[in-house]
Amino acid sequence: MEIDMTTASSTDLDGARPLRVVFASPLLRGATIAMFLSGLGMAAVAPQIAMFLVNELHASLTVAGLYYLTNLTAPIAGYLIGRRSDRTGVRLALFRICATAGFVGWMLIAFATEVWVPFVVAAIVLGFAGASVSQLFAAVYDELQARKTPGADGVVSLIRMSLTAGWVVGPVFGAFVAAQFGYRAMLIVAACASIAQVIPFGVMREPHRHDPAGASAPSTAAPGLRAMLPLLAFTGLYVLVYAGEPIKYAYLPIYMNQQLHLPAVVSGAVIGIQPLVELILMPVAVVVARRVGMMRLMVLGALFGVLANVCFATMPSAAGMFAGQVLMGGVWGVFAGLGVIVAQRLLPQAVATASAVFMSSPAISSALGGLIGGLGVSAVGLPLVFFAPALCALVAALGLALMSRSTHGIH
Q1: Residue from 298, 348, 1 nearest 152 by CA
Q2: CA 75 centroid distance within chain
Q3: Residue 49: what pLDDT?
Q4: Rounded to 5°, angle at Cα 360 from 305 and 240
Q5: What is the DSSP letter of 216?
Q6: Which residues contact 349 (CB under 8 A, 6 or more apart)?
Q7: If we measure between CA atoms, which residue out of 109, 112, 161, 193 comes closest to residue 286?
Q8: Quick one: which H or E segment has residue 31?
Q9: Any alpha helices (H) in 46-131, and if so which ranges?
Q10: Contact criterion met (CB below 8 Å) for 387 and 367
């Protein structure tokens, strides 16, 4: 199977600028808005949910920390939704169901009075809610293929940027709501953000399907394990790259506060600079990938992750922390904008399954990073623990380099 990752030239981009393509399509406009709302809601909750469990439901810190293990059901739910989507060709209907599940799940947690309720709801209901984003990416793929849109990778990257923008605004928004109106109000807002994702689509029907070689047509058979191996290998390498994020967010603020004694304003600026760099670099990554290939650029992105964590481990200063975060912005400027595109092209006969498998990988990364971070801190302490994610990123870079040279022709 020959997979060309550099299908669009610079002339293609000039002929169909991503913004113009998005504004011209009701589905793409709706997907862009829905992605922002999804990122906003999830990012508002993520930093606050542990505090909700401790302050409102009186859970211990240990129990609150175990809440994040409920994310491990998301890959299973995502795969089931994706397989159903590919078998039936239904994207938007399943997206609406998943968004509704998010509304129901966060509302149930908002009104919970027992500590076990958020765990059960998150594991069962919210696991399916997380598949809404992958269904949108599948619908976007269908739309762009049906319209034979040149420069489609730039369009997907632009839509993905709206999800990142939601994650930039979400933590500040969530903290404000929680401080002013309480944690339960913040969860209700997250529920409203989830159901609001369906509003831009109104009663829109399913996107047009285009099947140039049987690639995206509904299929009654799920892809076999052999067909999925390249996707699973790529997702596994992405998990290794992403594993540094939970380690960083868990221990970098502690390191900056307790050992470097940086002012809160400086620490906040260090954490906040990464998503800004990411947003700036995402469109740049698309242009560069067209020249050098997506997989080769991802090798460079993974190496940025190595250097970033080495900065955290060896440069005990504000400058070192900023350097590390800027490099991490480079990592996600590459992977956030291009990752789902690569995943879909690795399994073109089942793009919803590919999107679901790839988009659910951060849940596995969170569990892996939490385990590595916990063991690493106990063994070597701060800041040496950051050498562990540096090693993970190095392994990922080597694996991506091998994939780019494989017989599958992933360039």
Answers
A1: 348
A2: 13
A3: 84
A4: 25
A5: S
A6: 86, 214, 215, 216, 219, 223, 227
A7: 161
A8: helix 26-45
A9: 49-55, 61-66, 74-88, 92-110, 116-129
A10: no
State which amino acid sits at residue 121.
Answer: V
Please provide the size of the chain in residues: 411
User: Looking at residue 218, what is its pLDDT?
Assistant: 56
Cα end-to-end distance, the chain, whole Å: 12
Q: Is 295 exposed, middle or buried (0-12, 13-18, 19+ CB in 10 A)?
A: buried
Q: Characterize 325-354 residue by residue with b for buried, 16 or more Cβ atoms within 10 angstroms of its Cβ, and e for exposed.
A: bbbbbbbbbbbbbbbbbbbbbbbbbbbbbb
Question: Considering the chain, what percentage of its residues have pLDDT values greater than 90?
Answer: 39
**What pLDDT is stored for residue 231 in this prediction?**
92
SS3 181: helix
pLDDT value at 24 more than 90: no
Sorted by sequence, the CB contacts under 8 Å of residue 361 that are 6+ apart come out as 75, 235, 238, 239, 242
CB 216 within 8 A of CB 142: yes
How far, in whole angstroms, is CA 121 from its chain's centroid? Answer: 21
Question: pLDDT (tens digit, 9 = 90+) per residue, 288-309?
Answer: 998 888 999 999 999 999 999 9
Show contacts of 374-378: CB within 8 Å, 24+ apart.
Answer: 376/247, 377/251
Torsion of CA 305, 227, 136, 96, to 10 degrees: -130
Taking 80 as the threshold, does the pLDDT of residue 158 lie above it?
Answer: yes
pLDDT tens per residue across span 195-254? 999 999 988 877 665 554 444 455 555 677 788 899 999 999 999 999 988 888 778 888
Provide the whole-model pTM. 0.80
| 292 C-beta neighbours (distance < 10 Å), count | 14
- The tens digit of pLDDT for each residue in 355-372 reads 888 988 888 888 888 788
Please answer whether residues 244 and 389 qualify as being in contact, where contact means their C-beta atoms are separated by less than 8 angstroms. yes
Q: In whole angstroms, how far apart are CA 304 and each of 67, 131, 270, 325, 399?
A: 30, 29, 17, 10, 15
